[in-house]
Amino acid sequence: MKTKHLVIAAMVSTTLLPFHATAQISLGTRQGVSFSTLSKIGDIYDNDQFTTSYTGGIFMNVPVKGHLSFAPEVNFIRKGRSDELNEGTLGNRSAHYDYLQVPVMVRYNSTLSESDKYTIFFNAGPYAGFLLKSQTKQAGSSEWTNDTYKSNDKDPDFGLIAGGGVTVPLNKFKLQFDLRYEMGLTKLNHQPEDYRTKAISLAAGIMF
Prior knowledge:
This protein is mainly β.
């Protein structure tokens, strides 16, 4: 628990770091699709039992110096896995977890043209995902059942994000396309294995 508090404090601190008063802060929204699974911490992924779902939210791009900026976000994302082993039964089940996810990433922006309009960027940083709801579905059934956890079973999902994308000018706005990979570091409760969340997401957005 102490480690989790330190991670949260570090993420909040990065959003409060000073930046140039004249820096142009950009706001934006992103919408896309995520492909997630559950696997052990050392695995990038386990198998092809992916859960496909919507993901989206809002973000801020805060220039710091040169090509570097901070990119805090608030997103909704669903993570899970299809037909995982159901401990203690003879069947399989699917499970998914809905999170309010708060990444705080460092972003490197590199220009693609002399006019500095087209840019390619790379970002990486930690995230905290706060569990909103979790559901399970038995194999052969079409009905999802809400899980009833105690408060201490709803611990945040801490992890790391790495990815990149491109921004394209559109009148007074900018279109943004990004691809990212997420690796959870927190063990999920009520799982038969030492599972963490893993996800790949592709999203498009608009920067204002």
